[in-house]
């Protein structure tokens, strides 16, 4: 399980500023950090998504910054719960993330129906991409929603 460090300690969640080629600064990238040995890692699904995002960004002559949570639905939700929630255990935190994700998925599905009704293909594609960012990690079954960091 990715929730645990090699040393056996359970990871804490945090957010970092990541620099790319000294040109692009990406803020609020979700990471895990071990409170015992201080080992830290970018979450595997973030690594993949982030490298795709970086490939799509232009390298300009001057440096610029952006916020990762503007580009990834799940990162946005995790960040929002992380900075505003009052829950004090990791399990309660995960449960809250699941609940917010489920609500967001429902909202996106409603939007998708609207987009489909007006036959707006590019809007539909955009909503699909956002749904995918959520449903890759959040699987909703009949009455169950599972969520994992990894
Ligand atoms: Zn450790």
The secondary structure category is: alpha+beta
Number of domain units: 2
- How many helices? The count is 4
Mean pLDDT: 86
Bound molecules: zinc ion
Report the biggest beta sheet as strand number plus sense, adding barrel if it closes. Answer: 4 strands, mixed
Shape, per Cα inertia axes: flat
Instruction: Report the radius of gyration as a whole number of Å.
Output: 17 Å
Multimeric organization: single chain
Helix-strand string: EEEHEHHHEE
Proportion of beta-strand residues: 15-25%
- Which range best describes the helical content: under 10%, 10-25%, 25-40%, 40-55%, 55-70% or over 70%? 40-55%
DSSP summary, beta strand count? 6
Low-pLDDT parts are: 140-145
Q: How far apart are the first and last residues' alpha carbons, in Å?
A: 8 Å
Explain what this protein looks like in three dimensions:
By secondary structure, this protein is α+β, with helices and mostly antiparallel strands. The chain has two domains: 1-71, no CATH class; 72-150, no CATH class. It has four helices and six strands; from the N terminus they run βββαβαααββ. The protein has helices spanning 44-56, 73-84, 90-117, 121-135, and strands at residues 12-20, 24-33, 40-42, 64-67, 138-140, 145-147. Strands 1, 2, 3 and 4 form a four-stranded mixed β-sheet that branches. A two-stranded antiparallel sheet has the order 5-6. The termini are close together. Zinc ion binds at residues 5, 7, 9, 34, 36-37, 39.
């Amino acid at each position: 399980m990715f929730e645990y460090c090699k040393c056996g300690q359970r990871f804490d969640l945090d957010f970092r500023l990541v620099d790319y080629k000294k040109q692009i600064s990406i803020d609020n990238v979700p990471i895990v950090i071990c409170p015992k040995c201080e080992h830290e890692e970018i979450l595997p699904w973030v690594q993949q998504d982030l490298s795709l995002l970086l490939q799509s960004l232009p390298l300009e002559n001057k440096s610029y910054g952006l916020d990762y949570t503007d580009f990834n639905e799940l990162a946005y939700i995790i960040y929002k719960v992380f900075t505003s929630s009052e829950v004090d255990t990791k399990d309660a935190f995960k449960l809250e993330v699941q609940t917010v994700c489920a609500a967001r998925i429902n909202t996106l599905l409603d939007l998708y129906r609207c987009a489909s009704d007006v036959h707006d293909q590019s809007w539909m594609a955009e909503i699909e991409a956002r749904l995918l960012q959520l449903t890759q990690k959040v699987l909703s079954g009949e009455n169950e929603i599972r969520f994992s960091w990894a």
